Amino acid sequence: MNAAAKVQHKVAAISLSGIRQQFGALEVLRDISFEVAPGEIVALLGTSGCGKSTLLNVASGLLKPDHGSLTIDGTAAERFSDWQRIAYMFQEDRLLPWRSVQANVAFGLEATSLSGQQRHQRVEQVLRLVGLEAFANAWPHQLSGGMRSRVALARSLVVQPRILLMDEPFSKLDPHTRSQMHDELLRLHALSGMTVIFVTHDVEEAVVLADRIIVLEPRPGRIRAVKSLSLPRPRIPTDAAVTERVRQLRLEL
Length: 253
Ligand SMILES: Nc1ncnc2c1ncn2[C@@H]1O[C@H](COP(=O)(O)OP(=O)(O)OP(=O)(O)O)[C@@H](O)[C@H]1O
Ligand SMILES: [Mg+2]
Prior knowledge:
The chain is α/β, with parallel strands linked by helices. Helices cover 31% and strands 25% of the residues. The chain has one domain (3-93, 162-252): P-loop containing nucleotide triphosphate hydrolases (Rossmann fold), CATH 3.40.50.300. The strands form two sheets. A six-stranded mixed β-sheet has the order 6-7-8-3-9-10, with helices on both faces. Strand 9 (212-217) and strand 10 (222-228) form a beta hairpin. The two termini are 21 Å apart. The mean pLDDT is 95. The chain binds adenosine-5'-triphosphate (ATP) and magnesium ion. Residues 23, 26, 28, 46, 48-54, 91 line the site of adenosine-5'-triphosphate.
């Protein structure tokens, strides 16, 4: 593991070591190792098909890789039990068509000991955060693609996760809504100190949000570079320092 991929001095929130994954003859991930510190925001950046979703499936514990290990808060995945504090927003929204927006969002709270009223409050709160409070009683088929992905975002935030994994969470949003969601995520992150790993194709989005960017290269998916971003926050996309970093990264990649 190179120095930039390793967390210094703290127990990593997520640690992946020597991950290899093959689907039939297709080698999808080769020797992927990195650590994410508690409270860190890490972007996974790479071209389509390079294995980002597969890697997030591994990091979430959903996919046990052919080789390598996953450790969460210092505990091997096999012995880890606090899975309800990890939220995973999939690349496709996976809304349940027979449930209203609020019932979809409440889904993750059903296994908790919260009262009906507490659940209702939490759902209201996150629907407001994603700007869909007026659509609480709508059905998934009545929503646009961007609205559906905001419901999916609300559903992963409602559990107040300690670790949030998101696969292209903002890719279906218009630039204005996207930037609003960036601000909301950062606001929530500042309040909760949650650890975030998200996938994006968008260099600017990675620079605005992340503490580090892990760049993957395809066939097989490998870590090509790990970039630390020490830019001060808040990062305004039009600020010279931000546009310069975006330009540099685009050139390099
Ligand atoms: N369950 C599976 N069975 C077989 N092949 C798979 C499976 N999941 C993924 N793959 C293959 O692994 C490769 C990586 O897929 P993955 O979905 O991880 O890519 P990605 O980087 O997320 O791409 P995108 O940016 O398009 O979402 C692709 O070639 C895909 O066809
Ligand atoms: Mg993907």
